[in-house]
Amino acid sequence: MRIGTLGNGMMAEALATHWVKAGHEVMIGGRDPGRAAEVARRVGGTAGSLTEAASYGDVVLLAVPAEVAVEIAQLVPAGTTLIDCTNALNHSDFTLAQPATAEEISRAVPGVHVVKAFNLAADAVWRNPPAGLGVPICADDGLEVVAQLVRDVGCEPIPAGGLVRAKLLEATAALAIGIWVSGGDVRAMFPPSEAAFGTVPPG
Question: Residue limits of the Pyrroline-5-carboxylate reductase catalytic N-terminal domain (predicted)?
Answer without folding.
Answer: 2-87
